[in-house]
Amino acid sequence: MKKIKLPMVLVCSSVLLASCASVGEVDATRRQLAELNQRSQERFTTLESRLSNERLLELVNQVDRMSQDIAKLRGDMEVLNYTLQTTQKRQNDLYNDLDLRLAPLEGKPAGGSGSITTDPSMSNGNPATATSPAPAVAPDPVQLEYSKALESLRARQFNQAIPALKNFIDNRSSAPQVADAQYWLGVAYTAERQWKNAIAAHKSFVDSHPNHAKVPEALRNIGNCYRELGDKAGMKTAWDSLLKRFPKSEAAAKVKQQLAAQNS
User: Fold this and answer.
1) Which residues contact 149 (CB under 8 A, 6 or more apart)?
2) 3-state DSSP assignment of residue 15
3) Residue (of 205, 202, 153, 204) closest to 179 by Cα position
4) Which of the residues 4, 38, 96, 238 has an alpha carbon 20 to 30 A from that of 231?
């Protein structure tokens, strides 16, 4: 059999067509890869942008929360400062009030029923006109016991004054000094910030001796103790009683000043 020889032109044309087909496929593949790469890049950019926005939003929220926390802390700090200033003022008022109450006792022996004398020849603060010295008188054991009970109070040793005054009140219940001892017991409790005990002591004093000169101060102190306990109703009751019963007293004037300061 004879081999058929194709013309060279046909052979070259076939090779060229095959080459063209291969180049076209490669170009198409390259275009597809380029498009895929572009789409991937766009998706990555979109995702990156979305993540950036979410991160930015999270940071903004964190800053906002921190700002709210700082504002709350500032508010709490202002409240604490106000509370501290109020507490310090109350303490200063308490100490000043105690100074005024204890001033007549410091450095002077106590007399019965609240009177204080420095010399047996003194009467109402004026020298006696007697030309001869008074005869020696044996010391009154009740008065000595009462004076001893007040020694710790004069020295501002309130934790020691409390049991001493209580013992005197219990052991000398019929002595004329008991009324003053009950009042000073309430003062000692107040100095120790034992508000409930101070209220009880002052109420016992007021109930037992309603006409005593120190009743207005006792009522004012009862109101102060209720205020320290946060009992506004108790404070109002005590101060209303003071203003009604002793409207012209010095204690009433102090209460009016306190109420004016609270309402300002």
Assistant:
1) 161, 164, 165, 167, 168, 181
2) helix
3) 205
4) 96
- Find residue 126's DSSP bridge partners: 123
pLDDT per residue as tens digits for the range 177-213:
999 999 999 999 999 999 999 999 999 999 999 999 9
150 and 48 in a common domain: no
**Residue of 167, 173, 198 lying closest to 185 (CA atoms):** 198
Domain containing 257 equals 93-99+141-263
Residue 82 tokens read as 């106000």
Residue 122 belongs to what H/E stretch? strand 122-123
Domain total for the chain?
2
Residue found under tokens 């609270």: 262
Does the pTM surpass 0.90? The reply is no
Q: Give the CA diameter of the chain.
A: 183
